[in-house]
Amino acid sequence: MHRWEGWETARPPAASVAALVIADHDADDATAAIDAVGTRMVGRVGWAEVTQRLDTQGPLQLIALDCAGADDNTLAAALPLIDQFARDTDARLVATMADSQVDLVAANLFGPHVELLCAPSLAERVAVYALSVSQGGSHRLSDSARDIEVVRLRRLNEEIARIAETLARLSRTDSEHSPRGRIADRTMGYTAPPPATTGEAPPVAPREVRAAIRARRLRDQHFDAGLFEDPAWDILLDLFAAQLERAQVSVSSLCIAAAVAPTTALRWIAKMTDAGMLVRVPDPFDRRRAFMELSTGSSDAMRNYLGAVKRAGLPLG
Questions:
Q1: Which of 65, 125, 234, 292 is the most buried (most CB within 10 A)?
Q2: What does each C-alpha distance from 4 to 9, 89, 132 come to in angstroms?
Q3: CA-based R_g, the chain, Å
Q4: 227 pLDDT band (50/70/90 cuts)?
């Protein structure tokens, strides 16, 4: 019986908002960020003592996990317990990690209550901690970093919603709507010329999708970094190519395919999963890893779209 079972589920007043740090070192950045957002730190506990601490810990609003330097086996055992505690007590989890720990952490912590950060700066910690605290209740923060983060995440959510809506329309059959009625350009109203033939779209070979991905990466060698960032499309292309190849894609591999910073890639993967565009599949043989796949709707949409592009004689990508 956990002590926190039966506690009041309502959020505490601002003055008593509590945060716990889990780390095997001093975690100065985590402590400084918690202080910066005006949250009360109730303590720091090492990874080996997590289970004992959670058995006697009351509800928290924020749990800051610093995974860097922790043993993989210890993390694999502790992370599911922490995740369940957070779900039961409605706490927010912010986990920081090294790039090499992405698969292990993402396999055990995933969902709208989780933020994953790879080797973050202090400013990034402050922004995400502040956002996590502000989402939990009436605690108000005026820090400019929080405001910027809120705007950025709102835009991300809007973009994910737009892409999900477009993919849902694409996955419908032609008998439901005409091609022109399914998608309308929101800017110039451009309509592509009708295809020369009718019928089902021609199949797309995995090598064609991989060629399109290579072409996209070639742009990065000739233009400033970030000019062509489009992580959602890069994620969809990589997962579709893997599906055609009957290959599995780990979270860390998908972060690389997204061609953006790992923290940004993880946020896109999480939001696209929440939107029903991607599916997370735990590795049945290794709880340190999870695989990502396209949802049925996204898979159908990619096949229809890329097939239509190929039928029209246009380059993929």
A1: 65
A2: 10, 8, 21
A3: 22
A4: confident
**pLDDT tens-place string over residues 180-189:** 333 333 444 4
Label the pairing between strands 18-22 and 62-66.
parallel
Name the region of 191 (left: φ>0; alpha: ψ -120 to 50; beta: rest). beta
Q: Which two tokens stand for residue 58?
A: 């009351």
Largest CA distance in the chain: 69
Element (H, E) at 44: strand 40-45
DSSP state of 47: G
- Asked whether the beta carbons of 83 and 63 are under 8 A apart, the reply is no
Sign of CA pseudo-dihedral 180, 181, 182, 183:
positive
Provide the 3-class DSSP secondary structure of residue 219: helix
**Residues composing the chain:** 317
Cβ atoms of residues 75 and 101 within 8 Å: yes
CA distance 90 to 87: 5
Q: How far apart are CA 293 and CA 290, in angstroms?
A: 10
Instruction: Please give the model's pTM, rounded to 2 decimal places.
Output: 0.75
- SS3 assignment for 63-119: EEEECCCCCHHHHHHHHHHHHHHHHHHCCEEEEEECHHHHHHHHHHCCCCCEEEEEC
Which of 177, 249, 174, 179 has the alpha carbon at shortest distance from 209? 249
Q: Which strands, in side-by-side order, build the sheet including 62-66?
A: 40-45, 18-22, 62-66, 92-97, 114-118
For tokens 């960032």, what's the residue?
Answer: 229
Give CA–CA dist 140/20, Å, rounded. 19
Strands laid side by side in the 249-250 sheet = 249-250, 290-294, 278-282
Using the structure block, give the residue that is written with the tokens 């091609």: 179
The Cα–Cα gap between 186 and 163 comes to 13
pLDDT digits (tens, 9 = 90+) for 38-71: 888 999 999 999 999 998 888 889 999 999 989 9
